[in-house]
Amino acid sequence: MSTRLVAMNYVSTNPADLEDVVTTVDLVDAQAFTAAARRAKQAHRDWARVPAPVRGQVVANIGRLVEANAEALARLVTREIGKPLAEARGEVQEIADTCAFFVGEGRRLYGQTVPSEMPDKQLFTFRNPVGVTAFITAGNFPVAVPSWYIVPALLCGNTVVWKPAEYSAASAQAFYDIFAASGLPEGVLNIVFAEGSETFRGLESALQERLVDKVGFTGSSEVGALIGELCGRHLQSPCLELGGKNPMVVTEDADLDLAVQGALFSGFGTGGQRCTSLGTAIVHESVHDEFLRRFTAVTEAAVVGDPFGDVLYGPMLDGKFAVSYEKYLGWVRDHHTTHGSTGVGRITAANPRAGFLGDPDAGLFYHPVIVSGVRPDDELFLHETFGPIVGVTAYRTLDEAVELANRPGYGLSSSIYTTDPNKVFAFRTGISAGMVSVNNSTSGAEAHVPFGGNGKSGNGSRQSGVWVLDQFTRWQAVNWDYSGALQKAQMDTLSVEADLDFRLDG
Prior knowledge:
It is a single chain. The chain is an alpha/beta fold. It has two domains: about 10-240 and about 460-480, Aldehyde Dehydrogenase, Chain A, domain 1, CATH 3.40.605.10; about 245-445, Aldehyde Dehydrogenase, Chain A, domain 2 (3-Layer(aba) Sandwich), CATH 3.40.309.10. It is about 35% helix and about 20% strand. Strand 8, helix 8 and strand 9 (about 240) form a beta-alpha-beta unit. Helix 3 packs across helix 4 (about 85-105). It is globular, with a radius of gyration of 26 Å.
């Protein structure tokens, strides 16, 4: 395994206690990123030659090491980004689940034997690794999401350059250290801590030198578009997992208590700082007011605060997200009404939240906000709002609800609450999202089903399950002619004569 190249300094602090320095890391420049890609390129041939079932044994080792270190890793995630401990434990479990799934794929990287139209000739297909993969990941899921990329990429025989978010550096280093103990050879997995612009410049240089064969990015739609454009110049298609403005449709026949619980978790879990967080609840006009009343009540009763306690959510992940969330709060207009807490904005002693757990002035804590009266042309309706804010609007017909759900142009996750199967299938057919939940929240992916979005949420690529194998392998077709003669396809093919003018009497 490679060591980190160093340059400038970054301090990662606990967002629930800003005086608590979690780690200090050295950030590298663009040249160091390119150098890491060069090391990965040098290591690739030998790693690809390791039989896939043996690479699966390494993945199994990673899974066992994650399970053995699960509590320590989860507590580090909670301390560094403020994710509630229960959620952090679930995130670590997702790494183990991902490893458990891909262990078996080491024995199932199947190709096919295909019959030829020629005699004495066989056709085969093989999955080959793409080569060097470069992954840039966000810090809201600092260990689970990287595993979605890195585990299958390694299993398929690729080498990896990984650039995690700076604000989750300690979690990333711990994740890397676990992988380093699994038996991976030198240079197969390389971690690079770098600032965004230096990462982009380094990636650009690595692509120009043909050192990187596949790019994966999890982050904002705006940065994803830039990475997609960069990769397109080199005729590459990146794996892009971007933002979301995820709708939840609540029909007139829905179980409202169940819908409210789904809205609470998907809207405010992790402080609304997930790509799959609920953006807007689109509620049938006949139950809109009752849904809003119940949603407000459970939100007001929810405990916010110390992420090591039993809370719905903790602080913002990092100071930069607090700044952007303040901007989103500025999108609340005069025709809106806010609900759900004893205040709006940052929770402090002077702007308290009823039932807050801990010291609000120590960290970056914000009130949950439900905004009713949201209109289709509002900024709050059209744009991703990364934080604890959920819009609510009404609809009359299901066609109108689907139109509203698709209007922002994202297409990651969606949800419908109904007891009518006809509405389920009508919604599934009309929605542009890559993922649909029925009577469940917009958040909560499992490790063996395809994860990804369309539109502003991604370029149609998918992570997780067998579907991600198409991101990290290339199909190779082989034809083997043992006839001893040159047989030309479509030209020397045997033809079968038929009397196509035949008709039955009568």
